[in-house]
Amino acid sequence: MDTMHAFWKITPGGNPTILLRAEDVPPEKRAAVANAVMDVQHLGAEQVGYVRFEGTPRLDMMGGEFCLNATRSFAVLLAEKGLLAHDEDGMFGNVEVSGVPDEVSVRVSFPEHALPFAEACLHLPSLPEPERMDDATLIRVPGIAHIIQTGAMPSPEELPAFCEHQRKICHVADEDAVGHLWLKCEQNLFEEQEAELFPVVWVRATGSLCRESACGSGTLASAIAFHALHGTLRCRIVQPSGCTLSVRLEHRPGGWDVWVGGPVRMTARGETDLTGIL
Prior knowledge:
Number of domains: 2
């Protein structure tokens, strides 16, 4: 049995992501494989996705959740393989992603002397309504629920218990994935909101709680919160990595297009040994 399998390690503005071929890892093994390859003793990352290139390209995340940053990473890989269409602005197409019932639009452009800029778009019939929960705000985006916290982030020792308590009081402990978000921003005085995001993401299938260096769906949830408060249609949100992700909300007949974009680096690629894991 061949124990060497292809991988791609991609950094979409932080949030290092490992992509493996879906056909190499049976669904019942994916959570265990993800935990193994995320470890610093193996490839090291914050999350893992499983990809299919044939037909409509598809990305399944390690816990069946939705991840915007992994989707943007997948878009760059598809562009590299020539599996997206071309226009004068770059490359574009649609992909299937776990946690989302409809296809997600992606677009990749290639600025000169810069990293590829990849965007992913959710098509929503309406924007989720923020739900007030005690001292927090809950925003449910497709495939993941996000809790925007007030106050300071707890210490690393206190964080797991705090997040578990918040998931219980917000009634999201049964979700595939939950983000705990801390935001730092000035009062919105301009058309475009700017903020800093500090995300922690819990995935039920892997039992992981990760202080992420970037979070695309958390950035999306933050933009929806700003829109509910101020009517803001554009945001620039700085991630813990120092990278900025941009969001634009576009009202269309029958709903909204919400685009999240930023730079993506192909960090490493090759084969990894999964002996004793599969």
